[in-house]
Amino acid sequence: MFGTKHRQELGIPTCPLRIKAPFSVGCSPPHNDSFKLNIDGRSRGNPGQTGYGGVLRDDQGLVILCFRHHLGVGSNTYLEVMELRMGLEYCYLLNTEQVVIEGLFRNIWAEVMIIADYIDVKVCHV
Question: Can you give the residue ranges of the RNase H type-1 domain (predicted)?
Answer without folding.
Answer: 38-103
